[in-house]
Amino acid sequence: MAANTNNDEAIKIPWRIKEWFPDLSEKTLATLRSYFDLVVKHNKTLSLVSPKTIPVADALHFADCILGSQIVLEDSPGIKQIYDFGSGNGFPGVVFAVLHPEIQVTLVETDLRKVEFLRHVADTLSISSIKVLHAAFETLPQDSVKFAIVRGFGNISKTILLARKIMPKGGILYHMKGEQWGLEITEIPTQLCSIFFPALVREYVLPSTQIRFGVVKTTKN
């Protein structure tokens, strides 16, 4: 099932996911590696991630999304469907789908070229639980999204403002954030806090680094 990219650049880049996450199955590890190869192969034409992050993609992108996905599932173990708003390069939605094939993951993206990339990833890696939508997430039907996750889309205030109509009461939007997550929470306008209640789920540190990240959830009141 591995993507046959013949990508010499990807081969030379460190890949320590098996070392950091020894409990993952060989199939899961192989699929994640194939996804990494596809990201490297198409990055120059699609600008999927900053070129500076490619040498540490296993930590900064993959380990981050694995840890973030684990935290989300521990917080909401009953999830059957989750949306990735502004999916773009597929982080974290594709990683989430690889780790949890029993959960439907809907990737929502406005850039048509990246939509085509995401569909190519799902087809190439045979991830049947992925659905890709070419749309702005704020245009989805009212109250249609119970669970969603965002990474690298924008600040919390902007995201919940756009999501306020499409999420029902009790809907949860998870935000994967860096060390400044606390500042983003304090900057949420009072009016928005009356619509979404923000709270830190958990902080975590990426493997082999001292970089701290956090998963913040905003729950629709």
Intertermini distance: 43 Å
Determine the mean pLDDT.
93
Major sheet: 7 strands, mixed
The level-1 CATH class: Alpha Beta
CATH fold descriptor: Rossmann fold
The CATH architecture assignment turns out to be 3-Layer(aba) Sandwich
| Number of DSSP-assigned strands | 7
Sheet-strand content, in percent, reads 15-25%
The gross shape turns out to be globular
Number of domains: 1
CATH superfamily: Vaccinia Virus protein VP39
Q: Can you count the helices?
A: 9
* Cα gyration radius (Å): 17 Å
What order do the SSEs take from the amino end to the carboxyl end, as H and E?
HHHHEHEHEEHEHHEE
- Counting helices, strands and paired strands, the structural category is alpha/beta
The share of residues in helices is 25-40%
What topology, given as strand order, has the largest sheet? 3-2-1-4-5-7-6
What does this structure look like?
By secondary structure, the protein is an alpha/beta fold. It has a single domain (8-220), classed as Vaccinia Virus protein VP39 (Rossmann fold, 3-Layer(aba) Sandwich). It is 39% helix and 21% strand. The protein has helices at residues 8-12, 17-20, 26-46, 57-75, 93-99, 112-124, 156-163, 181-186, 190-193, and strands at 81-85, 104-109, 130-134, 147-151, 172-177, 196-205, 212-220. Strands 3-2-1-4-5-7-6 form a seven-stranded mixed sheet, sandwiched between helices. The termini are far apart. The relative contact order is 0.13. Residues 1-6 have low confidence and may be disordered.
